[in-house]
Amino acid sequence: MDKKIKAHTVINQLVQDHYRRALSAKENGEMVGWCTSNFPQEIIETMGLTVVYPENHSATLAARQEALPLCGHAEAIGYSNDICSYAKVNLGYLHQVGEQSLHIPRPDYLLCCSNICHQLMKWYENIAQELHIPMIFIDIPFNTDYETDDIRLQYIKTQFYDAIQQLEKITGKVFYEDKFKQVMKISNEVGNAWNKISDYACYQPSPYSGTDLFVYMGAAVCLRGREETRDAFYLLLEELEEAVRVNKSKCRYDQKYRILYEGICCWPALLRIATSMAQYGMNIVGAVYTNTYGIEYNSFDEMIKAYTCVPNAVNFEKALDMRLAEIGKKHCDGALVHMSRSCKVWSGILYELTRKIEEKTGTPTIFFDGDQADPQNFSEAQYDTRIQGFYEVMKG
Amino acid sequence: MNKARYTLGIDIGSTASKCIIMKDRIEIIAKAIIAVGAGTTGPFRALGEALKQAGLTKDDIECTVATGYGRNTFADADEQMSELSCHAKGAAFMFPGVRTIIDIGGQDAKVLSVSPAGKLINFLMNDKCAAGTGRFMEVMARVLDEDISSFAEMSEKSAQKIDISSTCTVFAETEVISYLAKAVPVEDIIAGIHRSVASRVGNLAKRANVQSPVVITGGVAKNAGIVKALGAEINAIIHCNEYCQLNGAIGAALYAYDILLEEENEDGQED
């Protein structure tokens, strides 16, 4: 009897294939790019370029406990301990490719978009200079206004077309408008499916464990313009629909407390976070972090606008509204806040953000110190006390 | 006459083990503090000393709750609770109506917000490192070659204000050494150390929106100089008593009694 392959397996396979494809493309003489996670991937898919996403690679190595020597090596060659740890892992990897469990090919060009952080620019500039390769940069500045005005849109659109021209020169590949429309349609479907997956956590119990979403996010980061990703997410949606219908969750424990996870995933401690969630009957049902990749739009202008609305690019009021909406929609009992040491952009707003969240919703917010990739910034004993205290506060 | 019921709370911290035995939830009949914590013989010595003081054996204790950094490894505990809840419980018992508790332990500082009914409703803890905690004070005492118990009295004699500005314990130690090298009086340095701790913990308390009455617990609270400096920093009267270091263990012993009652209620319902 044929047993239907589970979405979990399909999504994992997609991401593995993505890395395998990139390595084999490089071996076959094709140019390969390195790309930041919120670069308008529609350009890449339209032109049929092969790229990998160093942030995802760094996160994967961190989750597999392979980040520490790479961070150390980056520091040893002169990078500060205080810079982004995704950058440290990547720069360390660039210089010390070794026994890592996941590899990426060396880049021939770089694609960088500043909407999630400006340190990316320096990270990529260093690589460009060191490897003597071109870097294509799209500047999406932090938006001090709540909405994105036309002047900003025009500024970004101009760069968008310029990036295409540069890429055509570098890679010899052509940007076809018809293909672009098709890619926008697929990307939109992927974004829509991702948002629907996220919304399934509105159910009580949520049909899946929130930490699984962090894992599925790999496909949303690396492959969100592709039909196979849309189909995998549709498969996941079918499973979630069925799980809700029969009131059976993929999360195997009793979900007593519904949690908003705030901040970047603490990848080195993902397993500890998952086990502590199970230990105390908590489930992560909301996260602005994972929602980042639910990019939906109906036109080219809306697509550009969507890329200006990713978490680190929006002003405080909008950032707060994103959290309040998530807490309201998902009926969160508390917010677990990850103060990621090496992401200054995200961590910088968290004290005021949580103060406002508490003031407006009465939701308890608990901080823990950690890092998106550098395990040196996470103390398990300190985390354990905080998470147990969090549970005891919610229990009352 | 009903038989007395004994519960035990043990707070296994990073630098000390504290044990309390309570009778019928209201009377503290034994207390012990051993100056070594998790991973040492401290917890067992504290337990043995408390039992001896109370004239009891382990069999007389109906329920034991462990708390503190070493709570998960104490085999004699019936349950374990975080020190956050235990400090809230202990302080609400000692100071009815308390709304804010500042606990400074060996490796962390906490500010707890408590409901009018004495329930923990939220908390903040020190971030990034253990500056402004008990271990910081121990390091400073060592470099000054002074007994930490004399700090409060010595700081009262300070005539000149000096600042210890470094957050890092090691760098703060260097600052202290440089003051010593410049022949700055030890009394002034100690007062500076107190203000340094008070500033760091005070900022945490302000972020937690301090509400009075405020109580301070933990081993560092034994230093009246810190309590005074912290009071000035947050502009509040800070209450403290002789049980400040034992407060977490008291909360644990109280939780142990609650567990007994819950079990009895469950048994009653089953009957």
N- and C-termini, Cα separation of chain B: 24 Å
The residue ranges of chain A in which pLDDT falls below 50 over 5 or more consecutive positions are: none
Number of strands of chain A: 8
Output the helix-strand order of chain B. Answer: EEEHEEHEEEHHHHEHEH
Uncertain segments of chain B: none
The CATH topology of the largest domain in chain B is what?
A: Nucleotidyltransferase, domain 5
Q: What is the ordering of alpha helices and beta strands of chain A? A: HEHEHHHEHEHHHHEHEHHHEHHEH
Summed up, the domain count of chain B is 2
Largest sheet of chain A: 4 strands, parallel
Question: Which key features would you list for this structure?
Answer:
heterodimer, A: four-stranded parallel beta sheet, B: alpha/beta, Nucleotidyltransferase, domain 5, 2 domains, five-stranded mixed beta sheet, elongated
Describe, in plain words, how this protein is organized in 3D.
The complex is a heterodimer of chains A (396) and B (271). Chain A has 396 residues and is an alpha/beta fold. Chain A has helices at residues 7-27, 41-47, 54-63, 68-76, 85-95, 119-131, 150-171, 177-199, 210-222, 227-245, 270-279, 288-291, 300-307, 316-330, 344-347, 350-361, 380-395; strands at residues 32-35, 50-52, 109-113, 135-138, 257-262, 282-286, 334-340, 365-370. Chain A is built from 17 helices and 8 strands. In chain A, the strands form 2 sheets. In chain A, strands 2-1-3-4 form a 4-stranded parallel beta sheet. Chain A has a 4-stranded parallel beta sheet with strand order 6-5-7-8, sandwiched between helices. The longest helix of chain A has 23 residues, at 177-199. The mean pLDDT of chain A is 95. By secondary structure, chain B is of the alpha/beta class. Chain B has 2 domains: 6-87 and 246-270, Nucleotidyltransferase, domain 5 (2-Layer Sandwich), CATH 3.30.420; 97-240, Nucleotidyltransferase, domain 5. Chain B contains 8 helices and 10 strands. Chain B has helices at residues 42-54, 83-94, 134-144, 151-155, 169-181, 186-207, 224-234, 247-270; strands spanning 6-12, 17-23, 27-34, 61-67, 79-80, 100-104, 109-114, 120-125, 214-217, 238-239. A 5-stranded mixed beta sheet of chain B has the order 3-2-1-4-5. In chain B, α2 (83-94) packs across α8 (247-270). The model of chain B has no long low-confidence stretch (mean pLDDT 92). Chain A binds chain B through residues 339, 341, 351, 355, 358, 364-367, 369, 381-382, 384-386, 388-389, 392-393, 396, and chain B through 69, 72, 81-85, 108, 119-125, 127-128, 207.
